[in-house]
């Protein structure tokens, strides 16, 4: 009887653990920035959301005083293979979520990060793309399926690169995807990374599909971070951040 009881407890614990892993982990508590680090003059919690806000410059109200992009960095572990879902709202400017990234030397306005970015903006061009911050640049435009390959640099061309982005297909129409994104309202984003295969989704529509075969440059693991972009004064908000690993 005792042994059967112990077996049932173990089975229940394993079932609970499996269910928890399936549901994922909330990485924002909805109250404060515990587990996150960044410039507290720019990042705060408002109305249960992580809020990044830049003021207008005194010399030019159309610009913020930021001289570089800065980030709110998640400090409670790194990600390799994972799925992250979150909701975002943006007013003006550009933002995104860094993943498999790394911190560089901080700048005057806080943390500086390089690595993969699930991009989004208040405009109509970049939401959903895969961008590599301080790295290889745009790795997939919205709607594209791409493969990133290593290549030898051309010694006769100073602008030649050691990688190439090859468009191999599509995952959807860029204009249709953009039309489904709500301006200055809440949208749901999902990032899926498994090995060298990377996918982004906004409001249920896949926006990119990337296979990164550029082994020398493709990050396998790194930090998560949220971006405030230099440029116009902006507000970006995040909530319901759920991480599955």
Structural summary, described in words:
By secondary structure, the chain is mainly beta. It has one domain (27-244): Jelly Rolls (Sandwich), CATH 2.60.120. The protein is 11% helix and 47% strand. It has two helices and 17 strands. The chain has helices spanning 2-23, 174-179; strands at residues 25-26, 36-37, 43-46, 49-53, 70-74, 82-91, 94-107, 110-121, 130-133, 137-140, 144-150, 163-170, 187-194, 197-202, 205-212, 223-228, 235-244. The strands form two sheets. Strands 1, 3, 4, 6, 11, 12, 13, 14, 15 and 17 form a ten-stranded mixed beta sheet that branches. Strands 2-5-16-7-8-9-10 form a seven-stranded antiparallel beta sheet, with no helix packed on it. Strand 13 and strand 14 form a beta hairpin. 34% of the residues are buried.
Task: Give a short overview.
The chain is mainly beta and 245 residues long. The chain has helices at 2-23, 174-179, and strands spanning 25-26, 36-37, 43-46, 49-53, 70-74, 82-91, 94-107, 110-121, 130-133, 137-140, 144-150, 163-170, 187-194, 197-202, 205-212, 223-228, 235-244.
Features:
seven-stranded antiparallel beta sheet; mainly beta; 245 residues; 2 helices; 11% helix; Jelly Rolls; ten-stranded mixed beta sheet; 17 strands; globular
Instruction: Provide the gyration radius in Å.
Output: 20 Å
Let me know the CATH homologous superfamily. Exo-inulinase, domain 1
Tally of structural domains = 1
Name the CATH class: Mainly Beta
Number of helices: 2
The separation of the N and C termini measures 37 Å
Structural class assignment? mainly beta
Unreliable parts: 12-20
CATH architectural group: Sandwich
Beta strands, count:
17
Please estimate the helix content.
Answer: 10-25%
What is the CATH topology? Jelly Rolls
The 3D shape can be described as globular
Beta content comes to over 45%
N-to-C SSE series? HEEEEEEEEEEEEHEEEEE
Largest sheet: 10 strands, mixed
Q: If you average the pLDDT, what whole number results?
A: 93
């Amino acid at each position: 009887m005792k042994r059967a009881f112990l077996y049932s407890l173990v089975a229940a614990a394993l079932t609970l653990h499996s269910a928890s892993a399936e549901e994922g982990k909330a990485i924002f508590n909805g109250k404060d920035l515990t587990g996150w680090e960044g410039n507290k003059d720019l990042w705060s919690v408002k109305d249960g959301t992580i809020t990044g806000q830049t003021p207008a410059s005194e010399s030019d109200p159309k610009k913020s005083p930021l001289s570089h992009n800065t980030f709110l960095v998640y400090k409670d572990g790194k990600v390799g293979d994972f799925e992250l879902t979150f909701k975002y709202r943006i007013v003006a400017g550009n933002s995104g979520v860094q993943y498999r990234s790394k911190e560089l030397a901080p700048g005057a306005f806080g943390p500086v990060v390089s690595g993969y970015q699930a991009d989004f903006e208040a405009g109509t061009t970049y939401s959903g793309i895969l961008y590599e911050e301080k790295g290889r640049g745009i790795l997939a435009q919205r709607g594209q399926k791409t493969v990133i390959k290593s290549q030898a640099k051309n010694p006769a061309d100073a602008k030649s690169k050691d990688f190439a982005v090859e468009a191999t297909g599509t995952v959807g129409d860029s204009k249709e995807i953009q039309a489904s994104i709500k301006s200055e309202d809440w949208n749901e984003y999902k990032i899926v990374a498994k090995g060298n295969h990377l996918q982004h989704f906004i409001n249920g529509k896949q926006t990119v599909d990337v296979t990164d075969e550029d082994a020398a440059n493709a990050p396998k693991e790194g930090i998560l971070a949220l971006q405030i972009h230099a440029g116009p004064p902006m507000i970006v908000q995040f909530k319901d951040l759920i991480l599955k690993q």
